[in-house]
Amino acid sequence: MSLIQRIDALLPQTQCGKCGHPGCKPYAQGIANGEAINKCPPGGEETIAGLAQLLQLPVLELDRSRGEAPAQIAYIREAECIGCTKCIQACPVDAIVGAAKLMHTVLIDECTGCDLCVAPCPVDCIDMLPLPESKVVPIVGGLATSPEQLQARSSKREQARRRFEQRNERLQREDARRLAERQARAQRAAQNTDDSQNPVQAAIERVRAQKAAAADAALKKAKIELAMSRAQLHKSLKAFGHPPTFEQQMQLIVLQRQFETAEQALAQLESQAPPAPPPVAKDADLKRAKIQLATRRAELKKAQAAEASSAELETLSAALAAAEQALHAAEDASAKPAPTLTRIEKRPIDPQLRQLKTELAYARADLNKLQRQPDTRAEQLAQAQTRLYEAERQVKAHADS
């Protein structure tokens, strides 16, 4: 094993970024190049002691400016999850399972407690809870006191490393597959023109399509690199102390230069990209006519609900008819086929039922909020539960009536 691999084997493999690097392997490379060994809050004293013994360096005190990293695990409040998949994309070891618009959950045995999934969650339904010692071997947290504990933690780190590497390989395969699909579509589009063009022109079109696909892939890659560089810079700014040390300041300068380089590379690619085709005027007219029709229909409906005068209703009805005629004219002028419209009779909305359901939703939300607060009194919970029961009873009674 190389020196970097031996250093990486001692790191906790949380890939949390608290050390200022995008993962444990880059931090191992930094240590091999002379960086301090006390920048890993998840590893703590155990990792510092192991690195000091490996590198024949003095044991340093943990750099507390990088925050705390106790033995913890992510927990998703599944009733509040909206299935956005942002936490799945953020997890470096694929420890969260779920699908779009479906509930997500955390695999306890695989979670490393990096807390990278907390920030992207748009509904804030992820909590970092103390690690249940009876269920899993902690990857971090205190000094190991026996050879069995050392072996168990080493196995846990190796398992986390394998999952992290497998995830990166999977993402690379998916990127390669998407690139191949784009190139195949471009090639098929170029081949479809062979019948109407000579072979030389067809070959030129295929080359143009391949160049366009490659430029599209390069532009997408540049956008991803810029986003990652920006995220790493912001993460380091939050993790470092205020004011940062000289070493942290130098690292921030490097990250800022990387961000500026990525920004310039993206700007250059965007300047070289062909301009987007202007919108077709006929399609714009069709869209404008649809918006106008929807506006006139809403005005007439609002006036009818407000019991407006007959003269005002006649004026609005005439405006609605004119908007319908304008839409038909725009559809005829457009190249798009006219849609097939089907009238659906909807049941009228019961305002009392809507009010009861709104009260039920508020009662349920207040009860959930009180249940999550550790200092909630029993009387408050009882009142909230009673309110929820009463709201449910009124909705059911109204539905049965």
UniProtKB/TrEMBL annotation:
<feature type="compositionally biased region" description="Basic and acidic residues">
    <location>
        <begin position="155"/>
        <end position="184"/>
    </location>
</feature>
<dbReference type="InterPro" id="IPR007202">
    <property type="entry name" value="4Fe-4S_dom"/>
</dbReference>
<keyword id="KW-0677">Repeat</keyword>
<keyword id="KW-0175">Coiled coil</keyword>
<feature type="domain" description="4Fe-4S">
    <location>
        <begin position="1"/>
        <end position="57"/>
    </location>
</feature>
<keyword id="KW-0472">Membrane</keyword>
<keyword id="KW-0004">4Fe-4S</keyword>
<keyword id="KW-0411">Iron-sulfur</keyword>
<dbReference type="Pfam" id="PF04060">
    <property type="entry name" value="FeS"/>
</dbReference>
<feature type="domain" description="4Fe-4S ferredoxin-type">
    <location>
        <begin position="102"/>
        <end position="131"/>
    </location>
</feature>
<keyword id="KW-0408">Iron</keyword>
<keyword id="KW-0249">Electron transport</keyword>
<feature type="region of interest" description="Disordered">
    <location>
        <begin position="148"/>
        <end position="199"/>
    </location>
</feature>
<feature type="coiled-coil region">
    <location>
        <begin position="252"/>
        <end position="373"/>
    </location>
</feature>
<keyword id="KW-0997">Cell inner membrane</keyword>
<keyword id="KW-1003">Cell membrane</keyword>
<keyword id="KW-1278">Translocase</keyword>
<dbReference type="Pfam" id="PF14697">
    <property type="entry name" value="Fer4_21"/>
</dbReference>
<feature type="domain" description="4Fe-4S ferredoxin-type">
    <location>
        <begin position="72"/>
        <end position="101"/>
    </location>
</feature>
<dbReference type="InterPro" id="IPR050294">
    <property type="entry name" value="RnfB_subfamily"/>
</dbReference>
<dbReference type="InterPro" id="IPR017900">
    <property type="entry name" value="4Fe4S_Fe_S_CS"/>
</dbReference>
<protein>
    <submittedName>
        <fullName>Electron transport complex subunit RsxB</fullName>
    </submittedName>
</protein>
<keyword id="KW-0813">Transport</keyword>
<dbReference type="InterPro" id="IPR010207">
    <property type="entry name" value="Elect_transpt_cplx_RnfB/RsxB"/>
</dbReference>
<dbReference type="InterPro" id="IPR017896">
    <property type="entry name" value="4Fe4S_Fe-S-bd"/>
</dbReference>
<keyword id="KW-0479">Metal-binding</keyword>
